[in-house]
From TrEMBL:
Species lineage: Eukaryota, Metazoa, Chordata, Craniata, Vertebrata
Keywords for this protein: Membrane, Mitochondrion, Mitochondrion inner membrane, Transit peptide, Transmembrane, Transmembrane helix
Highest rank taxon of the organism: Eukaryota
Entry's family note: Belongs to the cytochrome c oxidase VIIc family.
GO biological process: mitochondrial electron transport, cytochrome c to oxygen
Functional description taken from the UniProt entry: Component of the cytochrome c oxidase, the last enzyme in the mitochondrial electron transport chain which drives oxidative phosphorylation. The respiratory chain contains 3 multisubunit complexes succinate dehydrogenase (complex II, CII), ubiquinol-cytochrome c oxidoreductase (cytochrome b-c1 complex, complex III, CIII) and cytochrome c oxidase (complex IV, CIV), that cooperate to transfer electrons derived from NADH and succinate to molecular oxygen, creating an electrochemical gradient over the inner membrane that drives transmembrane transport and the ATP synthase.
Any one of the GO CC terms: respiratory chain complex IV
Name listed for the protein in its UniProt record: Cytochrome c oxidase subunit 7C, mitochondrial
């Protein structure tokens, strides 16, 4: 008895929940404006690509604590 009720509820919940289908409808960002998409992708991928270069420009610490190697 309980399983039949659960089955009916699951079937009706699936019928009621309709999501738009098609290219770009299941993405967390809009693909309608290609220039906005281009800017977002450049910022996203550029920040990941540029991060090692930005970190290589930061100076190393003068001394390290404890018995570790000391940089001079």
């Amino acid at each position: 008895m309980l399983s039949a009720g659960v089955r009916r509820f699951a079937a009706s919940a699936i019928r009621r929940s309709h999501v738009e289908e098609g290219p770009g409808k299941n993405l967390p960002f809009s693909v309608d404006n290609k220039w906005k998409l281009l800017a977002m992708m450049c910022v996203f991928f550029g920040s990941g690509f540029g991060r090692p270069f930005l970190h290589s420009q930061t100076p190393a610490p003068e001394e390290m604590e404890g018995d570790r190697l000391q940089l001079h």
